[in-house]
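Putative ABC transport system permease protein structure dump, as promised
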Amino acid sequence: MASHQPRQMDGLQDFTNPAPFWDHLDDLAALLVTNTDHTMFRNYLRIAFRSLRKSKGFTAINIIGLSTGLAVCLLIVLYVTDELGYDRYNVNADRIYRLDADIFYNNTAYLGADGPKPLAPALIRENPQFEQFVRLSYAGDVMVRKGNNYIQEHHYVFADSTFFKVFTVRMLAGDPNTALNEPNSLVIDERTARKYFDESDVPGNVVGKTLELENHTICKITGVCQDMPRQSHFHFSLIRPMREAGIGDYWLGQNCISYVLVRPGYSKDFLQSRVNATVNTYIGKAMQTDLHQSMQDMERQGAHIRYLLMPLRDIHLHSNKIAEFEPNGNAVYVYVFLFIATLILAIACVNFMNLSTARSANRAKEVGIRKVTGSTRGQLIFQFLTESVLLSFFSLLLAVGVAVVLLPIFNQLSGKQLDEGMFFSAHILPLAAGLVLTVGFLAGSYPAFYLSSFQPIQVLKGRIAAGFKSSWLRSGLVVFQFFISIGLIIGTLVIYRQLTYIRNRDVGFDRDQVLVVQNAYTAGDAVRSFRQDLLKLNGVVDATLTNNLPTNPGNYSQNAWYRERNMAPGNMALLTNLYVDEHYIPTLGMHMVAGRNFAPSEYRTDSMGIILNEAAAKMLGFKDPHNQKLYAPGTQDSTGAYKLNEYHVIGVVKDFNFTSMHEKVLPMIMNLADNRGSLSIRFKGGDIRSQVQEVEAGWGRIANGAPFSYTFMDNDFNNIYKSESQTGRLFVTFAVFAILIACLGLFGLVTYAAEQRTKEIGIRKVLGANVGGIVALLSRDFLQLVGIASIIAFPIAWWAMNQWLQSFAYRTGISWWIFAAAAGAAILIALVTVSFQTIRAALANPVKSLRSE
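structure tokens r here:
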């Protein structure tokens, strides 16, 4: 039969024939170096391709391992790049700061993104280092009329007219300098414009038209801006003038979020000193007037009121405070994932080094002959590094394909919206090229220097033994691989256990089978009669009207309360306020530990009644809270002094978590109030779908076209810990990849170890050894290495996960069984990997192995 020859096509070879890909590696090498005159380099490439083709199993294992590690690394790099890129779209991002509140009083801390309305203008007015300011007041949802119906928009804000001077948001139509100057003016983004107006009118012909908001407010559109970039810590669709937010110029309030643009050339420390001076002047004066207490008196008591400069680019990863516009990321997770990417890539490189040194005996004679014929050690090192870089290059090509395929799954796990085009962006391509060289040199460095060090005389005399037991470095690398894998398994188990603890812990309220109608306020007074109608439905237990829900963290205020009817220093307590109705406690399944719930129909004085939680009663020192009194500032008299209103304690509710479990339960007071932000409905159970449909039908009769927008409270609760859940899923994924790559390398090592001990296995079988004994013999060394890896991993993993758990005020422990389970899983995985190849070697016919010898 005629041998197959590739057909020439205009200087290129035809690879469309059915010959195996391996047979074309030499031709591919020649094709790559056709245009080079460097004979030596051509030879290096040709020999490298031949070597890779000759060891098909070695090449396949290394390419699969490296490509998997590189694919995971690329995905994590995209994630980290995206997280680090927030708010950098702003031209002056490095000169924009937010003024964050840091208040501590009577052992109660308030860390918020908000502050007093007059603060930013005062900074600009009195400090030339501050160039511009903008204040924002987030209004949340708003109903916008379209035809005969209303559409609920989620990103509605009040802002100063300087918004476009501080932030780089391009105006598509209208004047950015004057767009927010006039009363009832409105700036909308392009997406909103296309939703409410004809496409042909967007953006230019939209300016001058009107939109009707809730309460029949007619707003004139004065500008259309570009949609907010995805990598922004806030997103707004509708912007109204700040003066229409109804916020007073009160120095002791937390009522808006302020940003300042500073002039170039000033350090953050110097700018902070100017903020401190302004705060001490104006807030100190307000405290003296309203609270009859100086800043110095307060600080002597260990309390303080500060406003700290938060760099704009740090907000997304370093700020999770009260009154944040949106949930932010976490810098710790970014660093952890970057570290994991490095570890997974290291495991893949270790595989290459291990397999290269394991097969050193197969190339020892090649090294000896090439040295005898004149090759220098430097040339041999370059040769082996060339092979390594080539293999790394092929692995990268495959890795990009694998990463593109896995990207939708990765987006779902991480909550990101990354796209394939990011792999070919200006900063990823150089990084990929750097990875090829780094991985190639890192993975090939030890084999290159190790193989090139062989003495030709010793090699040709057959004195180079490359048995499995001969390399302490190779054993150390196996320990390193499984040390990482076991550490990731422990981390996964601890994270999963903590998330399970959060979901199952008694948080002081019952979140199951509670429907939350988000926009109840749009129904006006009719929502109260609607609540009464709901109670007539068979499946409804109770319903409450309030927006201060425990699954809506941050949507509450902290106010000053006084133990006595005076504002003397030391008499004030800073307490969290929830504004609720009499149905709040029974609807949410809370429990009274003393006194009673609100009952305004029976007790007219309940309008001035308050309910404490256990933490507040303990802080205030009320051993018997019943009929205790507290005082809160009310209206001002003619002299500007505040009148203190008297409230009486009618009960104490069991502590419940109204913030996340990262924080302890704060001292809290419930006030009876008409708060219609949302309507929460508790069902008995049964057919929830039909019950929701009944509620929706009733809503349609009273809502005047407003949409029926709802969530379930248990889902809202889980969303509080969305970041932790995503982290847990990613941890599991990375642990699986790390173990797979480690097992792939272990499989290759076992294969070579079995090949090198073929004669020994044959002799043992002839002398009566059974399959189980031979498998145990070959597996013992590897299992010992996994055991050593476990011992090293346990203390390090315990320390790392204990540090993570410290971020939770309520947390589970790290039990001994987690370490036992991680070690058991690693040993089982290693045993399965090793046994697959060792059983095959043990079952081989000893006659064939001894005959070959």
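Residues 107-302 form one domain.
lmk if u need the other ones
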